[in-house]
Amino acid sequence: MVEKVLLASPRGYCAGVERAVETVERALELYGTPVYVRKQIVHNLHVVRELEARGAIFVDDEREVPEGMTMVLSAHGVAPSVHENAERRRLRTIDATCPLVTKVHVQARRYASDGYFVILIGHAGHEEVVGTMGEIPGRIALVESVEDVERLSFPEGTKLAYVTQTTLSVDETAEVIAALRRRFPAIRAPQREDICYATSNRQWAVKELLPEIDLLLVIGSKNSSNSNRLVETAHAAGVPSHLIDDETEIDERWLDGVAVVGITSGASAPEKLVQRVCEWFRERGVTDIEPHRFVEEDIEFRLPVELRRELALADAQR
């Protein structure tokens, strides 16, 4: 029987996700419905459904947006071709790409312009990876593992640099970077690591929590990279872990023989989902629910410049 629930800290929304979600909300207030959003604004089913209920329309491709309409780009970033397509369709485009993803894009372009071939560490098919690779087509290759690194081959004298997806496992990425440096000692590294502060912090918080729990529940959607990495962090330490969208996905059989449950949430999962899971445990008689520790993140990102400008104009006209 579960006796205690411990909440990891930090958990949940990061600054980039807060900014992206607020961007869609403010755009709906400013322009009215519909506002189109390319891809999921963030990888969370609940967030997407709530914004749809408010009038956002999610599309897979910018060419699906009717000409002249408003379109928000998701937090994961896009290739330059998306902006070109949007311009041709005369779309009012608001770019909600996380600034930490933009940093990786800028870095990749800079490396390429300086004559480097870029190696991107990331997961094939993830929207962030698609966007980064689209920045410098023909000058970039993707690796997902140490085995991929071993298969790389370049002409002698090729200048190499690497960047990474922002939502990777810190430990696994370190192994891939070590393999790159072993094979290509002169490879150029980013001045600051690309894995974002929120991804690193949430993995660190889980590692701190694991010795005290029997089971970890990670609240996040199946397509959330950083949420999946939290599950993997627990599994790597031998602690059972499950990814759930909300309390309805908890299987009570997971709790057999479990005294202490840990709860965390991915960077795109709102805190109210954590509270719903806590309430699920309260309804089953668990009264000892407390934070494992309290760590505050104070990073904030301003809204996209094109939206700030329009909001300022609207305020001035009132």
Write a compact overview of the structure shown.
With 318 residues, the protein is an alpha/beta fold. It has helices spanning 15-31, 45-53, 80-88, 99-113, 127-135, 146-151, 170-183, 197-209, 225-236, 271-282, 305-317; strands spanning 4-7, 35-38, 56-59, 70-73, 92-95, 117-121, 140-143, 160-164, 215-219, 241-244, 260-265, 288-291.
Structure, described:
The longest helix is centred in the first third of the chain and has 17 residues, at 15-31. This protein starts with a strand and ends with a helix. It folds into three domains: 4-13 and 197-291, Cobalt-precorrin-4 Transmethylase, domain 1 (3-Layer(aba) Sandwich), CATH 3.40.1010; 15-97, Rossmann fold (3-Layer(aba) Sandwich), CATH 3.40.50; 100-183, 3-Layer(aba) Sandwich (Cobalt-precorrin-4 Transmethylase, domain 1). It is of the alpha/beta class and 318 residues long. It is built from eleven helices and twelve strands. It has helices spanning 15-31, 45-53, 80-88, 99-113, 127-135, 146-151, 170-183, 197-209, 225-236, 271-282, 305-317; strands at 4-7, 35-38, 56-59, 70-73, 92-95, 117-121, 140-143, 160-164, 215-219, 241-244, 260-265, 288-291. The strands form three sheets. It has a five-stranded parallel sheet with strand order 10-9-11-1-12, with helices on both faces. Strands 3-2-4-5 form a four-stranded parallel sheet, with helices on both faces. Helix 1 (15-31) crosses helix 11 (305-317), helix 4 (99-113) runs parallel beside helix 5 and helix 8 packs parallel to helix 9 (225-236). It is flat, with a radius of gyration of 21 Å.
